[in-house]
Protein: HTH domain-containing protein
Amino acid sequence: MQLYVVFRLQSKRLIENETSLTTKDLAKEFNVSIRTVKYDLDNLRDWLASKELSLQSQRNKGVWFELTDVQKIVLKNELNELGHNEVFANQDARVNQIIVHLLLNQGYCTIKELAEYLTVSNNTILGDLDKVDAQMRMYDVSLVRRAGHGIRLMGPEKECRSLMEYILQL
Structure:
């Protein structure tokens, strides 16, 4: 199972926290959708089951661990070893990755394709597209959404190239 940095960061946050955290709190802290947090929590539960540990949860209270200090240290060390070369993209980085992906793609791209490409939920991508749209206003490039086809960027070649140059220089 491939475990991503956002998964590890959320897991560490839960291990270190003395009280429960809600999915809403985690989503806000890591700037991802609640659905992405729920996917990560499902993966965490699967991973913990292989270690005969569990994540506690209660509706309207949140999620938390009931671990000894030794168990906390062991889990943190194991999480540090998982996928340590992967980079977690914050929202600004995801927005830039979406723009580059759309600029390089000649046709339409679906929300699902972008979500899989960036390993986040569809809802996270939908939130990111608002920022993509705002950034496009600085250029004569527009985000075109077409039902049943997906999304794409459209604009004059010169403006698209200027946008790509701007992003690559960040």
User: Anything to note?
Assistant: The chain has a mean pLDDT of 84. The beta strands are 56-58, 62-64, 142-146, 150-154. Helices lie at 5-16, 23-30, 34-49, 69-81, 91-104, 111-118, 122-136, 157-168. The two ends are 32 Å apart (CA to CA).
